[in-house]
Design a protein that fits this description.
single chain; alpha+beta; two-stranded antiparallel sheet; five-stranded antiparallel beta sheet; 7 strands; Nuia
Length: 136
């Protein structure tokens, strides 16, 4: 868990130039919810409420490993560009897992699904990365 409050900057630097690939390639953007770690960890419904998601929006939860699997475990071994980026995705996943307490991934929405890889930072806030998965 980070105690220095610099997790946002470190995540931004680590995610620079990386995209989440679904039916669209979307960037990873730093996410922070000041004071949002109160009562952490909590489930997808409470997280959706705290970020102001529309009532009744589909929501779910997955692991960091599931979020990053398309870029790490399920990559084409013959795609040299993908293989060159794989260590960066592994490092990003590890930074989230080790730099945040109880890191998890929440998914909110349908078709354009907001994905939040989030955990508690050393200051009692929720922090992590946000991206969008397009799933038609």
């Amino acid at each position: 868990m980070s105690e220095d409050g610099g997790i946002r900057e470190r995540l931004q630097k680590a995610a620079e130039g990386l995209v989440y690939t679904s039916e669209s390639d979307r960037p990873f953007e730093p996410f922070e919810l000041p004071g949002g770690g109160v009562g952490w960890p909590y489930g997808a419904e409470e997280f959706a409420r705290r970020i102001g998601a529309p009532a009744g929006a589909p929501m779910g939860e997955q692991s960091l490993y599931q979020l990053f699997a398309p870029h790490i475990e399920r990559t084409d071994p013959y795609d040299t560009q993908t293989q060159a980026l794989r260590p960066r995705y592994e490092a990003l996943r590890e930074m989230l897992a080790s730099g945040l307490r109880d890191a998890r991934v929440f998914r909110v929405g349908r078709i354009e699904v907001d994905c939040y890889a989030v955990g508690e930072d050393g200051a009692g806030n929720l922090a992590g990365l946000h991206t969008v998965a397009v799933e038609t």
